[in-house]
User: Which sequence fits this backbone?
């Protein structure tokens, strides 16, 4: 009893897997035909599904977008190349447009059956769903099209690339041409505005001669100059008046007629002096003294000179007398003062005239300055309108020439260019799930499904199938078990089931072998 009690924990600790495997083998022998049938059915069904699965062939092409070339640095600042930011999005819009899709339908042969408009839309939607346009790199566009027909997949992909390039270049050309036409229209509008502004400014200047740029500075300078001239003339007039008063004061102290000493009178005065000198010398010397003799000779010479002078005076008196009563004449200082006074008077009159003329001109210039100030706002507004229109017009002229160069670049396809980096090829193998994948998955499913069903039956069937389970659930040791005995009929039936199961299992590799042989020989 103790020994039996010590054996129970060992029995309970045995692996459940070891207890399940014999039961599973037994159940598989009992239901081998069903298991083989399930295996064969699943394997052959998946094989048939793989054969019937429509093949999908994918063709791919890559378009390289070249932005930098030799034209770019040469035309920098003169041409604006048309850039593309989201190339894949733009290519998708171009590729799925109605115009492109109509050409794709024609290239793929779908229009041969003359579908209706609704059918065309459905075909276009299916083609769009089977077309993938991506942007692997910033300057690379990749187009992939999938179709059951490999040749049509190639043709459609190649046509997509051609149309995307042509439409993109046409869009660029149209875009640059539209930009040029828009700028050209703006140039014409601003030319008309500039011409009108020039005419208004010219008319205003013609109607207002003083409305010229910088005329106010000239007028102010002229006013300052006139004021300086008036002040100078006034100061000069004050000086002249002071000089005139001084001359009049000097003139009042001079006589018009003055007594003059003639030459004969001088001789007589000198003769009197010599006679006095001789008398003085005779008081001290005799008549033979050299000084007395010399003085006597001088007196004789003066007497002779006096005689000749009297004769000349008589001759001048008979011709043109210049003295009054033989001893009076006009005062030369008086005449000089009169002349200076007359000159100062004329200069004073001239200064007064200059002051009056300057004040008149100053009043005119001040009035002119008022008119200029009144017209300055209108002139400034007209000038501002003219300058704004002129600057905008000149800027638009430069932009129009830049747009013309850009348009010519796009027309000659010298700017942003597209090039087929990887051309499309006819796909040789289908893409996606192929027969090999489906058949392999079918074999795994055909093997796993019967095993799962068998273990599920063992787990959830309440019947007792092992001695270990009896010992575990009853808590009593099992002394022995009697195996089942099969009769000849049962053995014959078992043999037939084994043969049928073998046939079912053998059909699977045979079918797989035949299918893959046909596949390798391209028969299937």
Assistant:
């Amino acid at each position: 009893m103790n020994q039996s009690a010590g054996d129970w924990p060992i029995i309970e600790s045995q692996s459940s897997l070891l207890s399940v495997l014999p039961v599973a083998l037994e159940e598989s022998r009992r239901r081998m035909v069903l298991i083989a049938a399930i295996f064969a059915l699943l394997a052959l069904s998946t094989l048939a599904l793989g054969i019937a699965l429509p093949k999908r062939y994918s063709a791919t092409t890559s378009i390289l977008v070249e932005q930098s070339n030799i034209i770019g640095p040469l035309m920098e600042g003169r041409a604006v190349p048309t850039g593309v930011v989201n190339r894949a999005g733009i290519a998708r819009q171009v590729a799925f447009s109605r115009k492109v899709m109509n050409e794709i339908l024609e290239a793929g042969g779908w229009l041969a059956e003359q579908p209706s408009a609704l059918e065309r839309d459905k075909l276009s939607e299916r083609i769009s769903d089977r077309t993938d346009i991506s942007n692997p790199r910033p300057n690379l566009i990749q187009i992939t099209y999938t179709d059951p027909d490999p040749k049509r997949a190639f043709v459609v992909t190649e046509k997509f690339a051609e149309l995307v390039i042509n439409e993109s270049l046409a869009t660029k050309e149209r875009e640059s041409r539209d930009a040029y036409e828009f700028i050209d229209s703006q140039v014409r509008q601003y030319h008309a505005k500039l011409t009108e502004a020039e005419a208004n400014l010219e008319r205003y200047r013609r109607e207002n001669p003083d409305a010229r740029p910088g005329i106010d500075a000239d007028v102010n300078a002229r006013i300052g100059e006139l004021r300086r001239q008036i002040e100078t003339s006034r100061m000069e007039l004050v000086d002249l008046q002071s000089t005139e008063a001084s001359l009049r004061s000097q003139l009042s102290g001079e006589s018009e007629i003055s007594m003059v000493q003639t030459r004969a009178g001088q001789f007589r005065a000198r003769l009197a002096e010599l006679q006095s000198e001789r008398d003085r010398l005779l008081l001290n010397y005799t008549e033979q003294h050299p000084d007395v003799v010399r003085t006597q000779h001088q007196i004789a010479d003066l007497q002779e000179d006096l005689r000749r002078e009297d004769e000349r005076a008589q001759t001048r008196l008979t011709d043109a007398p210049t003295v009054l009563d033989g001893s009076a004449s006009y005062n030369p200082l008086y005449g000089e003062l009169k002349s200076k006074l007359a000159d100062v008077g004329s200069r004073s009159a001239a200064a007064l005239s200059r002051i009056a003329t300057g004040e008149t001109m100053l009043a005119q210039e001040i009035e002119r300055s008022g008119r200029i100030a009144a017209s300055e706002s209108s002139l400034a507004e007209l000038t501002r309108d003219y300058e704004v229109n002129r600057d905008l017009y000149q800027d638009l002229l430069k932009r129009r020439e830049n747009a013309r160069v850009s348009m010519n670049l796009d027309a000659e396809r010298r700017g942003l260019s597209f090039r087929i980096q990887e051309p499309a090829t006819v796909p040789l193998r289908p893409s996606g799930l192929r027969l090999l994948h489906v058949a392999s998955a079918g074999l795994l499913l055909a093997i796993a499904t019967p095993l799962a069903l068998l273990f599920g039956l063992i787990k959830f069937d309440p019947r007792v199938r092992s001695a270990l389970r009896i010992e575990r659930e009853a808590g009593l040791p099992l002394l022995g078990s009697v195996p089942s005995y099969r009769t000849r009929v049962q053995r014959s039936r078992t043999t037939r089931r084994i043969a049928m199961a073998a046939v079912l299992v053998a059909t699977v590799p045979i079918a797989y072998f035949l299918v893959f042989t046909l596949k390798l020989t391209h028969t299937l």
User: Anything to note?
Assistant: The first helix runs from residue 2 to 12.
